[in-house]
Amino acid sequence: MEFTLITLLNGLAYGLLLFMLSSGLTLIFSMMGVLNFAHASFYMLGAYFAYTISATIGFWPALVIAPLLVGVVGAVVERYGLRTVHKYGHIPELLFTFGLSYVIVELVQLIWGRAAVRYPIPAEMDGPLFTLYTTTFPMYRGFMMFIALLMLVAIYLLLTRTRIGLVIQAALTHPDAVEALGHNVPRVFMLVFGGGCALAGLAGVIGGNAFVTEPGMAATVGSIIFVVVVVGGMGSLVGALVASLLIGLLQTFAVALDYSLVTLFSGLGLSIGPGTPGFSVLNLTIAQTAPILPYLLLVLILIFRPKGLMGTREG
Amino acid sequence: MSTIMSNTTSVTTTSMRFAPINLGRWLVWSLFAILLVVAPLIFNKGASLSILCQMGTVMIFGLSYNMLLGQGGMLSFGHAVYSGLGAYFAIHAMNLASGGSLPIPVSLIPLVGGIFGMLFGVLFGYVTTKKSGTTFSMITLGIVELVFACSLMFPDFFGGEGGISTNRVMGEKVFGISYGPQIQVYYLIAFWLFISTVGMFAFTQTPLGRIINAVRDNPERVEFIGYNTQWVRYLTLILSAFFAGISGGLSAINFEIVTAENVSAVRSGAILLFTFIGGVGFFFGPLIGAVVGVFLTVLLSDFTKAWQLYLGVFFIVIVMYAPGGIASILMMNLRLMVYKRFGMVAPRLLLMVAATLLACVGGVMIIEMLYHLTLESANGTVMRLFGTEVDAAGVTGWLIALALVAVGALMFWRGRPAFRQAWDQANLEIEELIRKEHA
Amino acid sequence: MSAYSVELKDVRKSFGKSEIIRGATLQVPKGERYAIIGPNGAGKSTLFNLISGRFGVSAGDILLNGRSIVGMKPFEINRCGLSRSFQITNIFHRLTVYENLRCAVLWSLGYKYSFWHRLNGLRDAHERAEAVLEQIGLRRRRNTAAGLLTYAEQRALEIGITIAGGADVILLDEPTAGMSRSESDHAVELIRRVTEGKTLLMVEHDMSVVFGLADKIAVVVYGEVIACDTPANIRGNARVQEAYLGGHAPAEEHA
Q1: Which residue range(s) make up the domain with B366?
Q2: Inside any domain, residue C49
Q3: Least Cα separation, residue B380 to chain C (angstroms)
């Protein structure tokens, strides 16, 4: 019982972090048709900016300033880079962001070095939030979940209740019509791209100190967020939320389960030992298979339901 | 010729473009073969041979990748799956052979790689080619990550962290070839490179090869001329995976080790980068891309720690300003030369190139000095740059670098309009000539 | 063996809640030229898409040479002998004009997915492609990339690709759209030549083209075929006049 509850909470926390990361990616993709391969790099930038700012000014200013900075970087990248490539089609756009991801990692290493940096959780939140049976649930994790939910609500309100949100929703499917109506669609694109990157940056601010802040952090989450976006359905924020939670829970539970087929067979009374053929496969614990689960899910979804769980369009 | 022919109604006398003994084509292939044979004699410094070997395997890999991207319009993020799994099966075959249970000569090991690459093409290709466009790309990413994640789960086959090693010197010496010396490995690679290139080029001259081009240009229309688009893509992928497997097998022979990195998304990304830099619109583009790519990753890394940055920036510049790759730049200039208009452009072009070089040298200086300051500050601030000692923390170095960048940028900016004009004028005249030829 | 090339039997098609085709019935005899006309939004292009397999029908049956083709994929229908052109030019823009045509003939000549035949050595493909090239009058543009042709030339190529495979049922979707008077006349001549002895179904807005080419005219209004008769009779048909001129002018813009 305790195990289930704690793992559930941890899974939700991880899932919400994934959502923070992939919401920006979904927005950018829905709007511009661009799969931003550099999205995880902006996450990393957010963490590093927050590290520097919180080391000089403090964590709370960093929470506000760092995402804004990342958003500005994103907007500049869109204005001077992506826009030039836009006329060549979707593949060059994708390749541009692909190259960008390489460059950002290198620049980060150039400025902050190759080793992990000590970006600590602020002292006020470094402690347990509550204790469930014997396990403590960290306060900071609760804070992460809170910020993620806040972000979800904010995006929802922005898109449905504000004018700019309506324009964005319209430009999602009919950019030419929206432009003909007099809206500056290229500027909207720039705002959305910058906004999406800012969201990734915010995730970096929150996640960078909960996990480790190092140049490899982009690569660690990079592929998973694509799985989230595709599984959830390209074009659906709610889908991204559902998929993030699903994958977060799936991975957290899987990693904690140390059972394998051998355990199952032993429980049934069969004796399996190193001499049995296929032992190495049978002996694989669920925990060991955890890394492949998201990708297995991705491939299955793409075969059977390519629109994703809640997507409105395919690719 | 065409003016006389166009009025004839009889089909048989009209231009029979049956590719008669095409002298040009025989010349090019012969040159290619001669180049392959002679290369190690020209580049005979110590490490050059292993670089050439690497370039050779990457060339095959790149050509196979371009069957998908350039010829079929399919952007795959997981092509290393086929070359990597081919490499794994090849290396296991080599180990079985040296153990005596599988009598295959080393020369045929690439074929083992090819066959298994092809088998996985049949398996994974069925899943991936069900969809097209971005969905296809995403499935390929999912599959490569899947296979890569599996590599740690099945240590017997994948060898865990350390990978699988082998010794290519095994079995009976045929004609005195043991594959111990690197030069023998080079000629093995050159041989397989030549026949693979011939094979893949031949593919472009077949019905399937042409229809996959049509699928690239307009997949929906292809259905309406009788073809099942999915089957066309599937078959092309299987063939592409075959050649990728050959390159994997050669890699296993060359390095005598295969690790999980061979089936990684990183390696898939690398071949995408190289092929795109080389140029996806031309058959020989990946050949150029392989040379440039191996140069940038293997050679450059010996000279500077910033090589990944240079690779990334170079790639972005190509994407933004020359999406046709190096091949397209070459061909554009070649066209000018063929139509004798290169003289119009040459002086301005030279100026632009000089300006770019200046700015690049300055940029490189800045990057190198920055890298040195942040990553190697423990060794002091003095470093070697272009053969001279420079103090990275001192002012002179920075002044020179900034000056170079400024001068180069200024020259570029000033020279651009005139260059543009000359370029456009030259091409306009060429278009006129072509139009007159066809009228 | 049916006397009809194409038959539509009470075909219905809904997109979500909107029923676009509401019971269309039509019989096109072999070897005849039919034009399909109707107000904007009536569902003409949708009918074409249903016949050629681009969309599936919601109800009803479509027969090609007596055989039901409902549920068949476009390439299967093409292999049964039906070929279509598109309203928005749909060519292979990076291949040359000649290559475009050669691709169009490969399947019908039986080469299928061959990767062992040398393309340039295929005499029959070459001759057929050259013949169509001559017919559509694009010989002097033989080696130009299709994407670089003028609009009218691309439309001609579009027709060329459609007929190259030797299908005996041809569907042309607004072949003269966007053409000037002289270009239209030229296109009509071309269409007349290339559809000699074949069954032709054509969606058109240009009445002079329709009256010049068609043996019979089918009028589609609100997803139904309200009349199908000779051009002269259609001119005098009261229902047709009402649909086009007075009474209920269609309120919606066409797609």
Answers
A1: 340-438
A2: yes
A3: 56
Contacts of B140 in chain A (CB under 8 A): none
List phi, psi (to 5°) of C80. Answer: -85, -5
Query: Is residue B393 situated within a structural domain?
Result: yes
Distance separating alpha carbons of residues A298 and A234, to the nearest angstrom: 12
Q: In this structure, what token pair is assigned to residue C49?
A: 């898409």
Taking the C-alpha atoms of residue C83 and residue B155, their distance in angstroms, rounded to an integer, is 55
User: Which of B65, B136, B153, B311 is most worth mutating to test chain A (most A CB atoms within 10 A of its CB)?
Assistant: B153
pLDDT tens-digit map of B371-419: 887 777 676 667 777 777 777 677 887 888 888 888 888 888 888 888 8
The answer to whether B and C touch (≥3 CB pairs < 8 Å) is yes
- Residue where one domain finishes, among candidates B222, B246, B264: B264
State the nearest Cα–Cα gap between B11 and chain C, in angstroms: 7
The pair of three-digit structure tokens given for residue C3, joined into one six-digit string: 């006397």
Residues of B whose CB is below 8 A from A107: 309
* Interface check B379 vs A, CB under 8 A: no
Question: Final residue of a domain: which of B234, B264, B294?
Answer: B264
First and final CA of chain C: distance in angstroms? 38
Rg, Å, chain B Cα set: 25
Q: Would you say residue B407 lies in a domain? A: yes
Q: By the CB < 8 Å criterion, does C248 face chain B?
A: no
Which of C218, C223, C172, C174 is CA-nearest to residue C42? C223
Helices B133-153 and B80-99 pack at an angle, to 10 degrees, of 30
Chain C residue closest in CA terms to B2: C140
Is C3 part of any domain? yes
DSSP letters for A99-122: HHHHHHHHHHHHHH-SS-B--PPP
Rounded to a whole number of angstroms, the distance from the CA of B379 to the nearest CA of chain A is 15
**Residue at C130 is within a domain:** no
Overall pTM surpassing 0.95 (yes/no): no
- The verdict on a CB contact (< 8 Å) between C107 and B226 is yes
**Residue C166 is assigned to a structural domain of this protein:** no
Task: Return the residue matching tokens 């240079």.
Answer: B310
Count structural domains, chain B: 2
Q: What domain count does chain C have?
A: 1
The Cα of B434 is separated from the nearest Cα of chain C by a number of Å equal to: 10
| Residues of chain C contacting B223 with CB distance shorter than 8 Å | 73-75, 78
pLDDT tens for residues A34-71? 889 999 999 999 999 999 998 888 888 888 899 999 99
Mutate to test the interface with A, among B320, B364, B366, B368 (most CBs of A within 10 A): B320
- Residues 40-99 on A with a CB inside 8 Å of B are 81, 84-85, 88, 90-92, 94-96, 98-99
Q: Does B20 touch chain C (CB under 8 A)?
A: no
Q: What is the pLDDT of residue B35?
A: 87
Q: What is the pLDDT of residue A304?
A: 82
Give C250's pLDDT tier (boundaries 50, 70, 90). Answer: very low
Q: Which residue range forms the structural domain that includes residue C24?
A: 1-81+215-255
Element (H, E) at C229: strand C224-229
Strand partners of residue C84: C171
Which residue did the predictor score with more confidence, B180 or B254?
B254
Domain at C12, CATH number: 3.40.50.300
